[in-house]
Design brief:
Blueprint lengths: L1 H11 L4 H8 L4 H13 L7 H42 L4 E6 L5 E4 L5 E4 L3 E6 L8 E11 L6 E4 L4 E4 L3 E7 L2 E8 L1 E5 L4 E5 L3 E5 L2 E3 L15 E7 L1 H12 L2 E5 L7 E6 L3 H12 L1 E7 L2 E6 L1
Parallel strand pairs: 5-6, 15-18
Antiparallel strand pairs: 1-4, 2-3, 3-5, 4-5, 5-8, 6-7, 7-10, 8-9, 9-12, 10-11, 12-13, 14-16, 17-18
């Protein structure tokens, strides 16, 4: 015990001069001296309070900010992935719109593979969601349908409704004219005044809700599919509107007040010939004022 006490005093520097000399002459001093030297080599560096404070206040904050940025990046990415997934999941529930701008025609397929061709200046809206149970669409303008066999197929317009099962038919609903022609199968037509069933080769037409004599049926299909525009007792405004849609024109009239109705066919792929036919039928002159602008003037 005394030896350990002397070692502690020596290491702490509390020995008197005589005690230190006596201790250094003791047999175990050489070992004690080596222990002291190695202990000094392992001595911790001086503690810098100011430096430690800066490390505590600055370094952790910097890491926290970086972690926060990382977390927000991951969260934003997760939200984007979720949003994209939800978009594609609910997309079929949205109303699908198929449009044929003036001067064009468009063909597309419905979810049951029914084929639809839209005439110029026409639009169709439908929903893909639940299509097999509720096969219906809304038509503005004119379209030809080749419907696959299945459940009832409905075409809704502002002027009437058409119901079919596996058939080919054409529907035109423009202005005050509602026309339906059946090329295959059977078609049930519901106008504002009646419901009628027509079969292959038959057609029905209404104007202002009143039934009128329809045009003869071309067994090959509606003329507009083959670049022909057919009119059946149509007034001048309707004729002009159809030409505008097909050729993407703007037609203005001067002194053209005419009650004459036009029946006939004009080309849908030759604007000059089409304009000449109508000008001749109504005794008009026509003038081009710009690339897509025409004036019809009475003589």
């Amino acid at each position: 015990m005394e030896e350990q006490h002397d070692l502690a005093k020596w290491l702490e520097g509390r020995m008197t001069e005589s005690e230190r000399e006596a201790f250094e002459k003791s047999p175990g001093f050489a070992g004690y001296d080596k222990i002291r030297k190695y202990s000094e080599m392992l001595k911790a560096p001086d503690f810098d309070t100011e430096k430690m404070y800066r490390n505590v206040m600055e370094t952790p904050k910097e890491k926290a900010v970086m972690q926060m940025k990382t977390n927000w990046s991951l969260r934003i990415a997760a939200v984007l992935v979720l949003a994209i997934g939800l978009f594609f999941a609910v997309r079929p529930m949205f109303t699908q719109t198929e449009l044929a701008p003036n001067g064009t025609k468009k063909m597309f397929h419905l979810p049951d593979h029914s084929e639809v061709t839209i005439n110029s200046g026409s639009e169709i809206n439908y929903k893909k969601w639940g299509w097999q149970k509720n096969r219906c669409l809304d038509l503005k303008g004119e379209a030809f349908f080749h419907v696959t066999k299945g459940k009832t197929f409905d075409v809704n317009t502002d002027l009437g409704k058409v119901t079919v099962v596996g058939t080919q038919f054409n529907v035109k609903a423009r202005g005050d004219r509602f026309e339906v022609t059946c090329f295959e199968g059977k078609v049930r037509v519901q106008s504002t005044t009646e419901t009628i069933l027509i079969t292959k080769g038959q057609s029905v037409a209404y104007e202002n809700g009143k039934k009128i004599t329809p045009a003869p049926v071309d067994e090959n299909g509606p003329g507009w599919l083959y670049n022909q525009i057919s009119f059946n007792a149509e007034n001048l405004n309707a004729v002009i509107a159809e030409i505008e849609r097909r050729y993407d024109l703007k037609i203005t009239t001067q002194n053209t007040n005419s009650a004459q109705k036009f029946t006939g066919t004009i080309p849908a792929d030759n604007m000059e010939t089409a304009l000449q036919i109508i000008a001749s039928a109504y005794h008009f002159k026509y003038t081009k004022t710009a690339k897509n602008s025409i004036i019809f003037a009475g003589k």
